[in-house]
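User: I'm writing a tutorial on reading structure tokens. Could you give me a worked example: one chain, its sequence, then its tokens, then a sentence or two explaining what the tokens reveal?
Assistant: Sure. Here is the example chain.
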Amino acid sequence: MKYKFLLAACLVGGFMFTFNSKQHNKPVFNSVAAKLIKPVQPAVQVIAGKHIDSVKQFVKLNKYNSGICFFIDMSLPSGSNRFFIYDLNKDSIINAGLVTHGNCYQYWLEGRKYSNKIGSGCTSLGKYKIGKPYYGKFGLAYKLYGLDETNDNALKRFVVMHSHACVPDEETKGDICQSNGCPTVSPSFLAKLQAIVDKSPRPMLLYIYE
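And here are its predicted structure tokens:
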């Protein structure tokens, strides 16, 4: 049986990270082992077929950044790269990284559950506007504004995009840590996102889907 413990609060609102101690003992941070793991790369056609057309229309009509957007595919395992920096003009993935999903305030959530309710601790699916950066409990973070009925409580729930050391840089065979709703990435991957978001002359779109 895997032993799990709570790592730290995600936000002032009481979000917590669930950390799998057995999984994160050595395999996650062992660079040699990571190279032996065959990465799970989603087909660009799958993303394009499901979401690209509607996203392109949305960013054009709403004057968002029409060159780059961010996708999070929650149907993929958390140990696989599922946060995608996507080039809308070339229809190609520029970069990808690991990202957490919400544990819905459970000790450890098996599978996925989604909710937009305040206090649910779950991931909310839908489109998000990435807001202004600020420095909080976990350093650099970006406010997220939910644009759909499925995530329009994001700001009230203190759901933000930030980093945490529990998220590794490399893909792993097992699951990574869980949040209470925040799409949390590794510090190095957040730096890559920051370089894009902070230089964007228009709002950036983040789309979380399954």
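What the tokens reveal: The chain has three helices and ten strands. The first strand starts at residue 4 and ends at 9.
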